[in-house]
Amino acid sequence: MKIGITCYPTYGGSGVVATELGLELAERGHEIHFISYAQPIRLTGPHPNIHYHEVEVSRYPLFDYPPYDLALATRMAEVSELYDIDLLHVHYAIPHSVSALLAKQMLAAKPRGRRLPFVTTLHGTDITLVGLDRSYLPITRFSIEQSDGVTAISEYLRARTVREFDVKNNIQVIYNFVNCDVYVRDSESAQRRAEYAPKGERVLVHLSNFRPVKRVTDTIEIFDRVRKKMPAKLLMIGDGPDRSRAEWLAVQKGIHDDVLFLGKQDQVYEKLPVADIMLLPSELESFGLAALEAMACEVVPIATRVGGIPEVIEHGKSGYMADVGDVDTMARYAIELLSDEAALHKMAKESRGVAQSRFCATKIIPQYEEFYRRVLERSS
Ligand code: GMT
Question: Could you give all domains of the chain from N- to C-terminal order, each with its CATH number?
């Protein structure tokens, strides 16, 4: 198949999923065309089946708000015609599904009208935050309803979309995935670990875009409690608006030397397996891709019991969950686990097993392929 993929190309779970999906599909022989305003961050190196088309947004003095969604729609239509694209797959409803709908209509209106079905994948904040803003809700609902296929990355998100948007589409849950051959703990992980924890300290990790929904200061609070009980290091991967608040909190608590802010990282699969535990104390996660990537690397997740997290983590078996803001309980789980090598090892293996058996790319990618086939059949 020839598939056009659009996503937010910078850091963020939806862009990561879209890029990894494109890479996996290309490996399976599909021709993939990324259409976005910048090259997706995890799209490194050339690949014979992958093409990237940049969307240029002209700036005029009149345009206080340059119309990216229109430039995107135009580029989607151009690329689809030029490369004979079978379908568009957009990640994150706003504004990508609106642009895809416009592109579809542009091609249908041509003299020899051409079909261009599009699939929308809902990731989370496009529904739970942005989509519920009154200024976006009607158009988001409209573009979801106009999509030829809609998927959601968890049952939680599917149910919430149906409940709050009252859309009539049949939304299919296709879980996020991880490439278990790439996200794996291997012999190099131990060497890298020594770089961050040279005295054999315990290692905890947090990975996010440091937005308020991630509650990064809770991560520092939890680590502070752990640090009082044992030598430990915390790797903070990512960047975003709440980074300096977290840095200041670490300074105030006197643990700044043990909290390593690594910034945005392209190859998180090299960093994650260094750790024993991942902390994900978010206000909300529709799935929690970071937790899954950690689990594949035998890093036990301690997260909040929110959104789609209970679909990924089995409490007490492949990780722990606690209420939002309950840093004492999350710290207690971490301290108990880090004090019991056998329990930590067992849970780490269990985590990896869950990633392999339920969320491995080899299991999930065929679900997308099958979904595309059904959409194409319906639209032919
Ligand atoms: O919250 C983020 O990290 C960004 C956001 C996005 O769309 O880029 O993430 C959402 O999509 C991820 C990938 O599907 C999910 O793993 C995250 O749980 C989800 N975030 C929220 O629901 C807050």
Answer: 2-177+361-379 (3.40.50.2000), 187-358 (3.40.50.2000)
